[in-house]
Amino acid sequence: MRSRSQPDALCAHFEFLDRIVPGAAVIIVEEVKLGRQLSTVHVALYQGHLLTEAPWVAKGESSRKLVAYVTCFNINLQKGLTLKTSYTLSNPPPPVDLESLAREGGDEHWVPYGARSLELPGFEIRLWDNLEFYVPRRGQYSHSVVDFWLRLRCGEAFTNASLAFVADTWPHIIDGYRASPGQEADYINTIPATSIYWYPTVVLNLDIKQGLPPRGSHWLRMRSEAKEIRDGKLDLETLIYDQDGNLAAISQHVDLVLSADRNLSKRKVKSRI
């Protein structure tokens, strides 16, 4: 939407229809409503049996994996009522020295998060190859809440275009319920220490608030919180702050909690066109 001077996302709604795999994809964008201030587009991502020219996807063979509605605007042109609210984070995270995190990989209050052991052969969490996470040295204040700082391993800055990806990087809140080694899990307050789960996103809603500065932000702080985990379904609210403490975006998720074995099983190719 850059040609209409509406290059930014005001909000977005994503529906994950099927498992997406690393590899080629075609994204088709349909202009649903074009306006002077706000425009809406429909986005669909396809994989499998892709064509090298229009129509790009093979009818009856290519699979539609994800659909989204994105409302576009120009964040730099928005002017209107701005009021201060009384909202604050309960149990705020400890302070941070970002220079120490960048230089030494930790500071007085934050340490690197390492969980590569929570993987199976063939089931790798690839985002951990691209991102560095840091968690409170003292531990999280609640099983159902996680605070962390993150940055891209490549050294690039996050931009507004990164926010949907960032919002979907931490469904692992279940890991906070792991029993200590040798402790028996009760499946109410704890799960077995060695259980490995997969958390496919079903729905993701993203609300861009202040967004990130034009230069981007090399560090982001996030808080993810689950209100209820029941019958293999997980809700998740994620708050994303830039490195200066400004609220950049809020996301709401519906995730499933499945055994990691489910992500390793072979599937029949289904047409989703």
From TrEMBL:
Pfam families according to UniProt: 4HBT_3, 4HBT_3C
Acyl-CoA thioesterase-like C-terminal domain ranges (all copies): 126-254
TM region(s), chain numbering: none
Domain Acyl-CoA thioesterase-like N-terminal HotDog: 7-52
InterPro entries per UniProt: ACOT8-like_C, Acyl-CoA_hotdog, HotDog_dom_sf, Sec_Metab_Biosynth-Assoc, TesB_ACOT8-like_N
Domain of life the protein comes from: Eukaryota
PANTHER family: CHROMOSOME 23, WHOLE GENOME SHOTGUN SEQUENCE (PTHR38110), THIOESTERASE DOMAIN-CONTAINING PROTEIN (PTHR38110:SF1)
Protein name: Thioesterase-like superfamily-domain-containing protein
